[in-house]
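Give me structure tokens for this 231-residue protein.
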Amino acid sequence: MRSRPNNRLRHLPVLLTIGTLAVLPINAGCNIVGPATYLISGPEKVPAAFTLDPKRTTVIFIDDPSSQLPGREARLAMGRRAEEEILSRKLVTDMIQSREVIAITRGEKRAELTTVASVGKALRADIVIYALVRQFTISSDGAQFIPEAVLEVKVIESSTGKRLFPAEGEEPGSYRVTMKEPLIQSGVPTTRSQRTIAEVGAAERAGLALARVFFDWERDSTASRREETER
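Here you go.
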């Protein structure tokens, strides 16, 4: 399979955003959940959970088999935002657009690609960042606008099928990224266009939380310190 001429991404000097970021207040509480969860008073440096090889072609696979996401637009936004952040920080130099994963895993084609590694091979990617969407909502109670997403993350080497992250000794699905924002407003968007803007904005911020797995970042929280084990 030959690579499509426009399916690769290089370093981006400016992060692209969808209009929702200008419409919705941004005060994201993106928490990385691994063996322990930390809610810290004041800024704290959160270390990268895994370091990507900058020389290896990488693709992000946002997988949503249980249809947690409201539609294709949100799925595209999540993958695109993660790509932009990873590229802007020069964590890798060559990425295949995540939209290409959607294109080759539709319908009957999905049955031919039985593993995450096979998807990577089909796109000629060395590394696949796989994010399984476990939860996504902009309102869990239908009354308050509180976006939330949970992604189960792993990194797969396409040529061998080896799981690079979490380490092979860890349980599959042991590393999750949680994006839960504070109350943005009482009530939820009512019109279709307003809801789409809200959903895409939440998906973008979940994409940022996914990208943060791979670099050090500072967390701001007014909450008291709490540590709890999660497996």
